[in-house]
Input
Amino acid sequence: LLAEFLWAAGSAFLSGADKAVMYDTLKDKGIADESKHFFSRYALFGTIGMVIAFPIGSIIAGSNLLPIPNILAFPMLLTAVPTFLSGLIAFSIKEPARSKPKENLFKTYRNDISAIFYFVINYPHKLHWERQTLFVSTVPIPARILLSPLFAMGL
Output
């Protein structure tokens, strides 16, 4: 349970940080107007990586290299290789200089929250997919946490 919490917290802290550094770098180089192209390439390579890794992980997990409980962890262990390599690349990236925000941070958050409420109130018919996504992505985690003692007892 602690490992899942730490994994979720780490994912939340990293979420968007890579894209922010990428955009700041593009802005620093003066090509921020081409950011859509670079972000689509970024997403494309991530998808290609998953398309390649999923079948390989399935083949490894289905092989007879190790006994059954141990082999299932082996594909996850192999993810350490690309994670380590991407960490080396990440440490080689020079972060662009930070600039002072033009607005007060509180005003920025207030404006963002106001925009969300405006959208929810004025366009409720466009929220169908967002509600589904929110439900599908958030309900299983608490359910698993609450039901994990039952799973441990074999129920």
Notes: The longest helix spans residues 35-62. The radius of gyration is 21 Å. Residues 80 and 86 are 10 Å apart (CA to CA). The mean pLDDT is 78.
